[in-house]
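[scheduler] slot 2 assigned
[scheduler] job type: sequence-to-structure, two independent chains
[scheduler] chain ordering preserved from manifest
[runner] begin chain α
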Amino acid sequence: MVLLIPLIFGLVAYLIPGMPGGVWGSSGLGRATIAEVSGAEISTSEFLAAYQRFVRNSQFPVDKQFLKTLQIDRQILNNLIQREVMLNEAKRLGLDATSNDIQHRILALPYFQDNGNFAFARYQAILEQNGLTIQQFEDNVREEIIQEKLRNLITDSVMVSEKELEEEYHNRNDKAKIAYVTFEPTKYTAAVTISDPDIKAYYDLHKESYRVGDQRKAKYLVVSTSNLRNSVQVSESDVRNYYQQNLSTYQLPERVRASHILLKTEGKSPEEVEKIRSKATELLIQVKQGVDFATLAKKYSEDPGSGANGGDLGLFGHGAMVPEFEAAAFKLGVGGVSDLVTTQFGFHIIKVTEKQAAHTQSLQEAENLIRPTLVQKKAEQMAQDLADKAFNAAKSKSLEQTASELKLPIEETPFFQQGASVPGIGTSADFWTRVFGLKTNEVGAPVHIPNGFAIPQLKEIKAAYVPELPEVRSKVQEAFRTSKAEEIARSKAQEFSDKAKTGKFDALAKSYSVETKTTEEFARNGNLKDLGSTSPFESFAFSAEPQAVSQPIQIGQKFIVAQAQDRKVSAVDDFSKAREGLRQSLLAPKKDRIFQSYLDGVKDKMTKAGKVKVNEAEFAALSRRL
């Protein structure tokens, strides 16, 4: 949804150090150092606070395995490190933020204003809703200002050249259309004949592609979180204490639910903006006359995040939308429709469908949310404790004896490679890493798996090998057939292309039993129905004369032969009108790329100099607890 904006500006949006509390409580984890940048320490508590805020503020499903698959923990650590790299570089260059800088920045933020004046009570309330103290927020603003000063120093001389402007103008506005035919290898599979000598020759040529990497077979004790849930007792006082300790979580701010129709104006010339305004006005008239809002939004809205849902943006509070949009939405009553609202994104028509006053959920309202949370937390802690107990016991006893004493099941894997899905566990990088780091019969420390913990013991190692032909014959035969069918399709496509350059495209297509299709008009960097990205066709479509025929273009395993149908080159006069808008739309991303490249270079130099250090053992132990 293009309207959502972060409360905190950029680099450190979720990475504000020192937030107290969290799901790990006072377990002692916060005292360790997880990374160090030129002497500045990043503590585990700082990392956990950043991770907790990410989970709370992100739109990702809060599923631990899903977040592990995306390596969110590593991304957050890298961002914390980059923040310290940036601050270190700014200090080296003598850059800082004064108290006046910070004060002016905060006073200018529209989220904290009421009728144009800074409202301290609103300031406190919004920070509390975001889980921040005033000091944390102001420290974060200071870092943001320092980042901006460093960015400006590095990128102030960056410009967009006339050539870049012209290229972008034509990329956005030139249009082309092609006719095409498709040669599918699957159409020729049945025509492939296979003999034993063919299979043997193909195997000999490609045998390395059938190499099986190192494999491991392991036993493992399973500590299931779900099995422990049934034994968890959550008392009324537990629920009440959790509610009181996390009261801010249940303080719901004033919220509004709205739908909108957006017509974008970014990068458009003044003349184009006026045409868009006229179109938006026509839509507004239709809405006022009673035409269904959702139907119009689905058909005309250019917001990809909400258009398909009839423009519905869901519930949102103060500070979630750009100021102009927020002001209009909160002013309307339920069922009310705005006039045209102009923002940096374009013209909006807003309809409010629900309003909620600010309130704190009662304990009774929140109990159904709190109880499952406490059950899960207690079950996870019990599982962690039991897994640690089992691991310590297995140091002096067999895995089987430990399993018997603790009444835990033992599972055994088949041989598996790193990166493979393990039956009963699934795809778990932590499990592979742990098992592949063990010696035969060694027991590894507990590993977090989707439903609890596993304590693995390596049973057998199978070295990498190239299987003999009989073992992989069916795979070789299938690969040979696919390869030959692809060769036939390529040959047919080339033959068709050669003939079509001197013959009639449509008639030739019929003789090859392939269907001629024609694309819609398209610009560069777009997508085409049935073909996907326009990129493979752009060089031909935007340079060839009408009726010219392309060489075969491979898309996946298919081969496409295209015929140029039409090409529209945008007028020079229109370029002159759009030049400044294009410059503005290209300048910021170009500066962002250059600044990021600069920071990456600084980080690389510091890493090579030993000034960036990560405690991988501490990070791995911490990651298991997430």
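[runner] end chain α
[runner] begin chain β
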Amino acid sequence: MKSFRAFSVFFLAALTAAAQTSTDTATNANTVISTNTVAGTDTVAGASTVTDTNTVDSTNTAVSTDMGTSTNMVTSTNAVAGRPMSLLDCIQESLTHNFDVQIERYNPQIALYVLNATYSGYDPTFNFTGQHSYDNAGPRYVNGQLILGSVSEQNTFNTGLTGGTPWGMSYNLSGNVADSNIGTNNNFGIHNNFGAISLNVTQPLLKNFWIDATRLNIRVAKNRLKYSEQGLRLQLIISVSAVINAYYELIFAQQNVQVQEEALNLSQTQLDQDRQRVKIGTLAILSVQQDESQVAQNQASLIAAQSTLDTAENTLKNLLTDRYSQWHSTDIQPTATLDAPSQSFDLQNSWNAGLNQRPDLLQAKLNVEVQGIQLKYYYNQRFPELNLLGTYGFNGSGGLNSDYNGTFNNFGQGSSPFYSYGAALTFPLSNVGPRNQYKSTKATLQQVLLQLKQFEQNVMVQIDNAVKTAQSKFESVQATRQARIYAEAALDAEQKTYAVGKATTFEVLQYQNSLTTARSAEIRALADYNEALAALAQQEGTTLEQYSVNLQTR
């Protein structure tokens, strides 16, 4: 009887060693076989990940085995097309097809149209009128005397060109000619032709001299164009950062599925071994039930991980395309790896970058600038209107019984000039409106300046937090890597102890769970570190420069 038990212990130890050889074939390997439709290997730099010996290509298999001879296999097959994509590939797709980017891209174009429209204040306006008049008075008596009837006929033409200049002067270049016939009793006896051409100018010297409504609108529109360009740059940074986060979340989700598959394999192997022990009578049925419970829990964890993977992939697809239906069946295969490149952090340099490059902070500075433009305008509006006036022109007359040629000849000869000059002063007695508008704008400028200072301080705090977060995440990578290594060693030791009957099934399962948790924590830390670097670049406003994205709006 003793010899039979000794043989049983020896036989179980051999089975355990074989199982460990099967489940721990690549304990120190650095590659993880892809579990999606396109077979491939994703190298995890700086992290040793146990490789699943059950290679899964296009089919993810969840195994659930009950006591007895039957085995229930639950399989899910994803028949989708694989598409390897690097991070730069994803960024390029988002810059072209992301909805937020496409929507924001219109704003600089709209702002440019608005700027061009403000120059309409300098557009010359041409006018021309022509009129024919006829008047037949007829004979009448006045104070008992007969007044013969009169008849007159006249053709009049007027033209003008009016406009303004960038220095505030307005002008009116006008001309008119008239051809008249006057007679009595329907007989025209006098035929006359005359006209005049002139240039009238008005130049403000105080109010509307260095800035007026047109120049205000132009300067504000230029400012808003720059604002919209920074808004587009901000949206690009937000979208690219979102793509980076989604990309690394997808890698994490894929590798987390692998971790959960490995956990399921470990628990399934433990279940198979313990069934053999139950058959030969060296283990109680309770241990098998614990194993089955662990297998079921790991199946649930795998299902949850696969669901998270699907969600992460859809999140990335939504950022990359404006035609989701075409991407729905595409299985994105990231070509990048989860690693933790060592990076030196210089808080002062990060602050300088953020204070000079962050688009939202530059927009805040543009808001201060536009408030200053408005303050300058309302300061000018407080002054009285003092305008220089000037008119110069020529009269023309073709004489009696002549046509238009005589009048135009007089214009060319300049033989009958006329001119005038002077000044006009308009002084509002109270000037309540402009004075209070100026005070209001000045107070608003002070408010906006304080808001800018607050914004700058917030930016510095955000960058400081981002730097500390990145440093912390890098340290977490090192800690979780060590925790995973220790968990692997602990499980290996516990399995050897269990093989000689000095440990329980419950204890082995606990070590398996600890290893699974450590593996998930390690890849989570790697993903968090890369996302923290992206967040730091976003806070600095250097995301586009880091990925060589050039913004050209005009």
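[runner] end chain β
[qc] chain β: The chain is about 55% helix and 20% strand.
[scheduler] slot 2 released
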